[in-house]
Amino acid sequence: MEQEIATQVVGLGGSTDFSLIQLFLRADIVVKSVIVILIAASVYSWALIFEKYRLFAKIEKTTKDFEEKFWKSKSAENFYNNLANKEKDPLANIFQSAMVELLKTRSKSVSVQSARVSRVLEISSDKEVKLIEKHFTFLATVGSTAPFIGLFGTVWGIMNSFQSIAISRNTSLAIVAPGIAEALFATALGLLAAVPAVVAYNKFTSDSAKYNARIENFSKRFISII
Fold first, then answer.
1. Contact 218, 59 (CB under 8 A)
2. What percentage of the chain carries pLDDT values higher than 70?
3. What pLDDT score does 175 carry?
4. Distance (Å, rounded) from C-alpha 194 to C-alpha 45?
5. How many whole angstroms separate alpha carbon 102 and alpha carbon 107?
6. pLDDT tens readout for residues 195-222
7. Distance (Å, rounded) from C-alpha 156 to C-alpha 20?
8. Helix (H, G, I), strand (E, B) or coil at 85
């Protein structure tokens, strides 16, 4: 009877199947919850990573094309009038917002016009950068918390192993191993979710900073020519 109780605590019995699916199925509700949370976080992190990778690849191309066309144009107003309304490039959106304000303040003094256009450039730039950096916080959160969530699953699994030893009074590896395997599985998932999220967050933060500097450079040059 004591052996049966220990088996229930460990959730393995005499089975030697240590496949990932079986480790999950044999785990208790707490460890299962940890595993599900970490898998969900990992899947969503990878979805964000691919999304942001495509985004930065896209805006790198569209912004380069926009800048080339802009600096080759005869005038900012002429370029604005010929610019496609459905332009989806962040820098193009910033330029369009600035041109709208520039045309509205045409009757104002140069100092007033420059100040208002600068303000619009600042607001539009902040808006576009926030859109680019959307969900960065989630990647940072996963990177910092996933190892600890996995560690919690590890501690819980090891506690179950010790409980099974105490109940069965049997220190056999067959009693201890299943709970430890479940525990280490949770730790592995925590690292699997955290490492890509941290690497992606650092890369995308760097890419965003470079693009923000590009926006600031364009804004300064644009103000200088009006």
1. no
2. 81
3. 63
4. 9
5. 10
6. 999 999 999 999 999 999 999 999 999 9
7. 18
8. coil
**HSE, side-chain direction, 13 A CA sphere, residue 211:** 28
3-state helix vs strand vs coil in the chain, percent to 5: 85, 0, 15
For residue 42 the two structure tokens come to 């990992």
Given a cut of 50, whether residue 185 has pLDDT beyond it is yes
Q: Which of 204, 188, 197 is nearest to 144 (CA)?
A: 197
**Helix, strand or coil for residue 143?**
helix
How far is Cα 81 from Cα 100, in angstroms, rounded to an integer?
11
6/8 Cα distance (integer angstroms): 5
pLDDT tens digits for range 27-42: 678 888 888 999 999 9
CA distance 150 to 159: 14
